[in-house]
């Protein structure tokens, strides 16, 4: 019965580990800037989500609208929103969607930018700090 050659297994295993060293080009300044931007955006999303979820004046309808929109809206640029699309997607009446959007605007969670055809462009408020709406 022959015994396996542990020396060759160890050396080949070590060679495999040497080849797995991280690529330092992953840490270029442009990638670090992107990572910082993403971290900042996640922080803003956490702050704004906390503000919405803890505000007792936010209705269930407004919370539903915010939850749906928060996946589409950005802090740094406006996105067009059709209230009819929201109503269909959420199974809500358009007047209820309108009321929810107005509440989120009053609380300065959503910022109305402009009108684009029938759509209104909104963005999330990046200045919302301290978890208060």
UniProtKB/TrEMBL annotation:
> Domain of life here?
Bacteria
Q: Which InterPro entries match?
A: WH-like_DNA-bd_sf, WH_DNA-bd_sf
The name under which this protein is listed is MarR family transcriptional regulator
Compositionally skewed regions (Polar residues) per UniProt = 1-14
The ranges of region (Disordered) come to: 1-30
